[in-house]
Design a protein that fits this description.
Largest sheet: 8 strands, mixed
Strand content: 15-25%
Helix content: 25-40%
Number of strands: 8
Distance between the termini: 29 Å
Strand order of the largest sheet: 1-4-3-2-5-6-8-7
Shape: globular
Radius of gyration: 17 Å
Order of helices and strands: HEHEHEHEHEHEHEHE
Amino acid sequence: MRLRRKPWVDDAFAKLDGEFVFTQDLDKFKGHWQEMFPGKRLCMEIGCGKGRFAVGMAQLNPDKAFLAVETQKGVAYYPAQAAKDLELNNMRVICADAANILEWFEPGEIKELYLNFSDPWPKAKHAKRRLTHRNFLALYKKLLGEGGRLRFKTDNRALFDFSVEEFKEFGLEIIALSYDLHHSEYDNPVQTEYEQKFSALGTPINFCEVVF
């Protein structure tokens, strides 16, 4: 998601930095995130966009804490501001490159990981950039630890088929799979911005949940 640069974002973002959004020195929290959210199960969404999913899940699940990762400051501002406005004590935003997550968290510190409508990188030569490629799965395995769960949603069938095969080849247990989530047995309490758009057009939403 690439948004036009807004001149007011830097100042507005700075007022949230260090409280509702974190941008630097993230390694100082390594092994200590639970102290920020006592007694709550730690969950993460990579590529949260404007945060509709993370905010909604935080509201519906007070027993869990949601860390929403977004690289673009002009986008990350929105979920951070929403967390402040709604006084969500179980949600914070990380504005940084998720490729570095193992520097921020101890193995097994995160228990649930959400990948929603990730970039499909359709060209075969870019397969390693897909967030469900086995190289990323190896990273998630360390992040989540044994028993950690990954939930994946996409409208892109080619990406979904690729991802399911990667999950199988990596040896993950698939506990839920649907090629039409909105007409399935699986719970889907919060839709992302993209999900609302695509489903309104009649596009089936693919869903898979795996256990590490």
